[in-house]
Amino acid sequence: MQWVTRQRPKIDRLACPWLIKRFIDQDPEFLFVPAEEVRAVATARGAIPFDVPGVELWHGGGGCSFDVLLEKYRCNDPALRRIAAIVRTADNDNLRHVPEAAGLRAISVGLAGAIRDDQERVAVALVLYYALYRWARKAPAAGRPERGLVLWLARWRERRHLSDLDDYLLRDIGLSRADLRVEIAKPWWRP
Predict the structure, then answer these.
(1) Which of 109, 136, 143, 170 has the fewest CB within 10 Å, making it most exposed?
(2) What is the dihedral of CA 53, 102, 130, 151, to 10 degrees?
(3) Spatial contact of 55 and 49, defined as CB atoms under 8 Å apart
């Protein structure tokens, strides 16, 4: 089956081809065209349009097309839901609620700058999203107490190691001795 969307994919339009290929269509062909040509190309070729305003597989300005694909094709894997939250957050530039979204956004923007060819960019993204999926399947669910304890202990160790750094190294990471004293004085459970 052919799938068509806007050219120059980033974030959501890199995540969707991975989802389609891995869980929806075993042998997809992706077409990337200017936004104003997506519907015409879809009609002419019998392709399925996605992530374009006014088509069935469009998020309507909120959420992301990854969410729409999950819903339409009834993909209920908890790891996919976790990835959807990361993709949605990165795509909508609201990085505070899902920390992993900042990394995904940075990688996606970096791919866009490094790889001009849309097909090649998607080929690289397929590997990245597969790795993200493997992580999402194994990572502990949010709110598990042992994750908090591990994080707290890691903070405590990092703060202790900061005190061993020379002033020039502290400057390199944007800290002064005064900043370091404040950081070390924080209780180990505080961010």
Answers:
(1) 143
(2) -140
(3) yes
DSSP for residue 140: P
Q: Which residues of the chain have pLDDT under 70?
A: 61, 95, 139-150, 188-191
**Cβ-contact 133, 125 below 8 angstroms:** no
In the prediction, which pLDDT does 161 show?
A: 76
DSSP code for 53: T
Span 139-182, pLDDT tens digits: 665 555 445 666 777 777 777 777 778 887 777 777 788 887 88
Checking 31-40 for CB contacts under 8 A at 24+ apart, the result is 31/2, 31/3, 31/4, 31/5, 32/4, 32/5, 32/6, 32/7, 32/8, 32/118, 32/119, 33/4, 33/5, 33/6, 33/7, 34/6, 34/7, 35/6, 35/7, 38/4, 38/5, 38/6
What are 34's two structure tokens?
Answer: 């200017």
Q: Tokens at residue 176, please?
A: 């002064």
CB atoms near residue 2 (< 10 Å): 15
Distance of CA 120 to the CA centre of its chain: 18
Enumerate the β-bridge partners of residue 48.
Answer: 3
Report d(CA 6, CA 13) in Å as an integer.
8
3 contacts 28 by C-beta, under 8 angstroms:
yes
